[in-house]
Structures are given as C-alpha cells and as structure tokens.
C-alpha cells in the first residue's frame, strides 16, 4: 500500500421505526447519519491487528487473525474489532493484519450503532488491506456475516445495523427485510428534519443492560411459540410465518387471552411495531408528516409500556420535542438509555433543538456543549473505503 494509509468510513444509523423486531425477522426502517467511525490503516506483513483510538479513553487493542480469537475483557471496545475479524477469518483464510487508528464523532452507547459501525469499518479495512473488494451481491453476504459475527460480544441482536451501515443510500431511509435480506430505499422528503437527541444515559448493550436486552428476544420468541401452538400452527417458527398464517387482530386476541401478561405485552409490541413500519414507509413516500409523526408517538408508547425499554430521560426528551413542535418522537435503538428521534418540518428544527437545549440539557449542565448531544440527522450513504 505504500506509506499513504487507506481510510474507511462507516456511518452510524438512526432507526426511524421498527424497534426490537429485526431479531424477530420483521422489517425495519432506518437511515444512516452523517456521523461516522473512521479507520486509517496500513497493511502488515504478518497476521497481527494493532488498533489505537484517538479517544484517550480507549486504550490500544492488539490481536492475531486466527481461527479462534480470544475476547478482551467484557466491555472492552476492541471486542467489536475482534468480532469483525472472527467473522472474516473462516471465509477468507490467510488474511494479513493491519496497523490502524480509529476515530469517531458518533456518541458512544447512544443508540446510534457506534459499535456496529466499528465492526463494519474494521471488516472493510481488513478486507481492503488484503485486496478483497466487496460489491453486490457479495455486499449482502457481508451484511449477514457481520450481523452474526457481532454476536461474538454476547449481544443477541438482529441484522439491521450492519445492513444499513453497509447499504444506505444518500437522501434515503431504507426498509430492510430479512430472510432473504434486501433493502428498499425511500427518499426522505426535503422539508422533513429528523432530530437525534441523546438522553445522557449510556445504552451499553455490552454492559449492564445486556441481560435486559437479551431477555427481550427470548420473551418475544416464547410468545410467538405459544401463540402459534394455540392457533394450531406450530410450524410457524417465525413472526413472518405466524403473520402469514392468521390476521394480526386474531393473533393479538389469542395473545391477550392466553399468554402471561409480560409475554402478551412483548407479543403486542412486536406485531404492532411490524405494522407501523409499513405504514411509516407509505407515509414517507406520500410525504405525510402528520401520519409519520403519529406512528413515532405510537411506537414510543409501545416501547415504553409493552416492551419496557424506555427510561424517564427518554420519556422527557420525547415530550419536550413534541411540545416544541415536533410531529412525533420516540426512543431509537435498544433503549435502556440512548437517544430519541424526533420528526419536524425543517423550518421548525431550530426551535425544537433550542427547546431541548434550554429545558433538558441546560438543567443538566450541558447547554454549552449541546452539539455533542443533539443534532439534525442527514440521511447519508453507506460505508466506503477511500484513500486518505
């Protein structure tokens, strides 16, 4: 490669609607944002990967590309790079390592997929260093490979993050379908503005919230299994199969009558959120801001009450955004902290952001540094490798 390093950029993402349902096989509607993880790298002659982070809060990380890559201690940022490498090694033998410097302007543990952006950026850097280019249809395979690979860190996630980070189109949100994986873009109306605001509560899926997060897929699947059995369709081994077997109202009635309360609530969220995704996609295509905003509100209520992944700070941000003129708002990402996404007309964005600064961040001593916490999200393109 010579002395000039290559540079890879992987965006964060904001999930507009379709929360906690990708691991159920149901469609979601995210978009990539303009904030990124970037890795500058050189190719090595051996199999070592050496990473340094420009953020002094993260120490160096070194490992060897081998069939079994031992993990660093739980919560170590380097485990996401190791996850990428562990996924690639079986598919691409004899990989050479890299010397790399990592930097990011994505807030960490804010529900904007900084971790998956690091996984994708690391994978693209290693592949590029070894002369492997990725283009459709191989891109779809890489999305799936890295989604499975990220479970190395112990989180039972779905495949949304890796798919949108790799496959996003500038100016668009994308409906992501699973089994088979495919992305369908929809242009975000020019007069719409999505605002992302961090709750100042870390949503660390690799940390304290992991047990709660991982319980949700188990609960959702158990609810699906019980409803399928009661319906007389035990062969419906996924939510898409179950929804193909009977209308949603019938399934919700069965769940409400026969499931324990917690499982009934989890089931209701998954089914109704799946419906909201298609409705939101149609509202965006039809430039119906009011309808999209109402769907955001409904989603937040469901995530708060039925899936129980909200926090008081997220609820406060949602309410303040609505009061300031947003058409709707909801938590985005896994919850248990993290961020909200609010929708408003672009001309109203400054007043919404000002209200959040004055009524949420200023009382917490963060008004002078508010750009770290709240920003107007631009629908951006997917990850790419470029020369520095």
Q: Secondary-structure blueprint of this entry?
A:
Layout (H helix, E strand, L loop, with lengths): L5 E12 L11 E15 L4 E6 L7 E4 L13 H11 L9 E7 L9 H16 L8 H12 L10 H8 L4 E6 L4 E6 L4 E7 L11 H22 L7 H7 L2 H11 L2 H25 L3 H17 L6 H12 L4 E5 L6 E7 L3 H13 L12 E4 L6 E4 L1
Parallel strand pairs: 3-5
Antiparallel strand pairs: 1-2, 1-12, 2-5, 3-4, 6-7, 8-10, 8-11, 9-10
Verbal overview:
With 388 residues, the protein is α+β, with helices and mostly antiparallel strands. The protein is 40% helix and 21% strand. It has a six-stranded mixed sheet with strand order 4-3-5-2-1-12. A four-stranded antiparallel sheet has the order 9-10-8-11. Strands 6-7 form a two-stranded antiparallel ribbon. The longest helix has 25 residues, at 261-285. The termini are close together.
What fraction strand? 15-25%
Q: List how many beta strands DSSP finds.
A: 12
What is Rg?
Answer: 21 Å
The order of strands across the largest sheet is 4-3-5-2-1-12
- The arrangement of helices and strands along the chain is EEEEHEHHHEEEHHHHHHEEHEE
- Helical segment count: 11
Describe the largest sheet.
6 strands, mixed
Which structural category fits the helices and strands?
Answer: alpha+beta
Oligomer: single chain
User: Which shape, going by the Cα principal axes?
Assistant: globular
| Overall helicity | 25-40%
Mean residue pLDDT = 94
Unreliable runs:
none
> What is the terminal-to-terminal distance?
12 Å
